[in-house]
Fold this protein.
Amino acid sequence: MSGPQHVDVAVVGAGFAGMYMVLQARELNLDVQCVEAASGVGGTWYWNRYPGARCDIESMEYSYGFDEQLQQEWEWSERYATQPEILRYAEHVADRYDLRRHIRFDTRVKAATFDDERGRWLVETDSGEDLDAQFLVMATGCLSVPIDPAIPGLQDFAGETVRTASWPQEGVDVSGKRVGVIGTGSSAIQAVPILAELADALIVFQRTPAFTVPAHNRALDPAEVAAIKDDYGRFRADNREMPSAFGSRLPRRDEGALDVEPAERLAEYEARWERGGLPFIGSFTDLLIDETANETAADFVRDKIRSIVADPDVAERLMPSQVIGCKRLCVDTGYYETFNKPNVELVDLAATPIETVAPAGVRTTAGHHDLDVLVLATGFDAMTGALTRIDIRGRGDRTLAEVWTEGPRTYLGLGVAGFPNLFIITGPGSPSVLTNMLVSIEHHVDWISDCLAHMRSQGHRRIEADVEAQDGWVDFVNAVAGLTLFPTCGSWYLGANVPGKTRVFMPLPGFPTYRETADAVAAEGYKGFTVG
Ligand code: FAD
Ligand code: NAP
């Protein structure tokens, strides 16, 4: 057998991050090879094919902005694109830029070891076709490792068990069946209204109610599209100035919720509820900072739940008690309304926890629910899961999983001390999942590409984050998170959904400041990194 394939850049993952990284590396005339576990491109949008899966960032924003021709040519059909449409877009991009010849599909990276003497990474795959690369770019995704709930008997279920995060490509026929859904996060909230239409009976097993606001999805108005396309560059630039890198058309007000009269506050919430989507949480400047301010928005949504859900007991059980926006806000189409349907039942696991999954269904402390199909919408080992599942060994043979035992430590979310020539796209310590991910992905890929170009032009072969810079960065991220209400609930941002995972708030709020900082680091010769 021949030895590993020698390349300049190895990229792991062919979602939007990996695809753009491949393109940029090729533009630099670097020899690049990408390895992807799936059989196709698209990452999230390849795997998450559950009914109702769609974007909750508007489609005119959730798309690449690096090529004016691409963004002019592509036509989105709806305000929020469906999973099939986003997947078609990813496939179109792969074809348009001839990316597939650089991607090895159906291949999983198991390990990557840095050879300190040679300054190169040995990347081992499950196919045995390994890579020997100068640079290793992890485009493995923040929400790409689904986790199954630790419920006794789950394996014994005699019906069909499916995960939203790896929904069968051939679909699941639920017509005439009794379907159970475990979980009430964004995935479940999108799937539940559709499953309720298709199934004979739907039982939603809810442990913690989530806040959700209506999407008010609709076909895109050609005039609206034309207005954006008229100056798409300006539109992208305006969005980059937003705290979460989206929603510039509905700017955040410059005042706090408690600075205005209650009637004005209500009117603002009502207007945003009617408009739909995530900008609801940007109604006022202090919603994610001040608990009293936050409570006004949370109360508004609770009132909406009361007004939509006919059965007051069910409405009460659907009402979250945590801070709104602490767990990621969900965006739905008819979620609360679904609980008015006669074939839908809400099981409140906080009151009656699941005891076991039996061959015929789910048993809670209150009784047994017969099921034909069990849907697990139970979330992901977010931000670190895909990285720590690979045996990544840096200098001194230390693994990334070991170094991150007490939580992830990065410099700018891009580099890790002790792991030279390794880059992470949208890694922990960067705004990442708190933003329109496409914007963060493009920023990181551009930053990494500029860095590679700089190194090549200067004859440098090695770059590594300094421990001091990394320590300072981690302290900064923690300090910023500490100013917000984010650490007040058990969210996946904190790793609280994974048993045994250290609780650390992983993303950094505030895209514009982050971008300026990362770009200044580059402009100052990669300050905080040792390059040589
Ligand atoms: P992914 O798309 O996750 O791609 C990573 C790829 O790496 C995957 O294909 C995976 O198979 C591969 N991979 C991982 N480990 C290995 C390995 N060891 N070997 C080989 N391959 C590997 N973000 C938004 O901004 N707006 C939204 O509306 C939105 N909606 C979402 C809806 C769902 C259901 C989910 C799960 C996430 C959503 N996100 C959204 C976040 C979404 O993950 C990002 O927007 C974006 O698609 C991430 O792209 P990526 O390339 O970084 O990662
Ligand atoms: P999630 O938000 O982590 O939700 C998982 C759900 O499963 C939670 O309700 C959780 O309850 C529940 N759960 C987990 N283990 C359980 C157990 N043992 N018993 C009972 N319930 C259990 O995961 P997700 O819905 O897949 O969403 C993850 C993220 O992906 C989102 O926050 C978002 O960033 C992205 N996403 C976006 C969209 C979109 O609208 N575009 C759609 C899907 C996903 P607890 O809260 O009690 O832990």
Q: What stands out?
A: The radius of gyration is 23 Å. The pocket of NAP (ligand 2) is lined by residues 55-56, 143, 149, 151, 182-188, 190, 205, 207-208, 328, 331, 349, 377-380, 433, 492, 497 (CB under 6 Å). The chain has a mean pLDDT of 97. The first strand starts at residue 5 and ends at 12.
